[in-house]
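Model: Ready when you are.
Researcher: Fold this.
Model:
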Amino acid sequence: MPENAAVLAGKPIVQRIHEFYPKLPEGERKVADVLLAAPADLAVRNAIELATQAEVSNATVTRLFRRLGYASFDEARQAARAMRATGSPLFSGKASKPLGDPISELVHEETVVIEATLSRVNPLVLRDIGSAIRTAPRIRTLGYRNSHFLSQYLTAQIAMMRPGVAPLLMPGQTESEGISSLGPQDLAIVVAMRRRPAGFNRMVEAIATRGCKVLLLADESIRGAPAHATWTLDCVVETPQFADSYVGALALLQMIVVEAERALGAAGHRHMEDVEDLRERLGELE
């Protein structure tokens, strides 16, 4: 093990490179420049490819990674892959620039995400979720960070069809205050795409202890929280781009909305008519 490994343990490779950069020999600095320009490449390339791109020897690559506190190139690559799995934008994306039409590539990539997400849905589970949306006295939604806009979208769509739908955490509320409002017959819908905040699993567990049903929508990196959920729906989010894609999650939310509309039936339509009548009288929309 490199003698500086203990000191550097826990620090991401980009931070390590910046700390050592001023003192790096010219060859190792070339490798560092390649890595800093595209950290995501480390997760998908081998040492020979990295050396070739930097125009240095394999030994130079090895020396750099040992200087940075890694036992080998493979250890550093595994660390980069772990960061990629968490959704870190620094370690996500393609190893090279697209050669074709970027619009066509994006359409293809997003289509793959939608198909992969929807192919995982069990229609019987979807039917149960629609029934829960129909019968729950209250529905509360929750989503942190990028999951927040997804939960807001679902809140707005379901609220057009039935009363008693709102975010779990209102402005100014603590998490405990929001969770305490849940009861045994209620439904909590939690959107949890990767890069979730610390303590997230504890939040889901606390929600579940209220006795309500819990619908969890998450990507495949979720761990622990599904044990406390009534249903867990998987969303594919990773693409060759540097940022996660949520088109699959949005398509899945749309499926839930359609199923909710079917389950609510005439009652849902009456509520929508009431909402539309109020909008007309208040002149809210153009």
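Researcher: Now this one.
Model:
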Amino acid sequence: MYQRWERMTFIHWRYRPEQVQALLPPQLRVEPFDGAAWVGLACFRMRDVRVPGVPALPWMSAFPETNLRTYVRDARGRTGIWFFSLDAARLAAALGGRGGFWLPYYWSGMSVDVRDGHTRYRCRRRLPGPAGARCDADVEAGVPLVERERDELAHFLTARFRLFSVVAGRLATALVEHPPWPLHHAHLDGLDQSLVQAAGLPAPEGQPVLHASPGVRARVSMWRW
């Protein structure tokens, strides 16, 4: 799949590794940083979604998405992303993500509104449930990170090039190719969410770590074993 991720905001919290490990398949282990597991909401707008050789369709290939994710390592030492949920505003995308890519997609009512550097994300889950799980975030993007601010934590949370899933009982992996994220500082003006709790985790505590980005183009491979 080819796609572009635009108006991205990463919102991350620290968790105790055992809290996150309890929700992972046995083939994967939490990848900690600074002694903690990290759980993140990634709010963004998808554009130009297409398969090779097929043009992007204007209505089908552009929609908001919000992902809930953590960072893991398999028995071979490969690191990547594990998705607890992926909410998409297009029913066809949610069905295709579940049926064709074996990822936990949900169909949700969503919007991404941008005005004067502020981005307003809205998400209300419809199907398959729990209906009403939400993520409403108001974010102000700031100046770009300078080189010294692109530290190990920023790299750990955003520079991810592999996805994991379990397909027919077997661990599968897909590679993701994209240029480095052009990261910006970000300020959270408001957040009302229950996607984290809907995934089976306790509500996050403390101030989250935020990063914003205007976006990147990406290519996602098919699953490999």
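Researcher: Key takeaway?
Model: Residues 56 and 220 are 15 Å apart (CA to CA).
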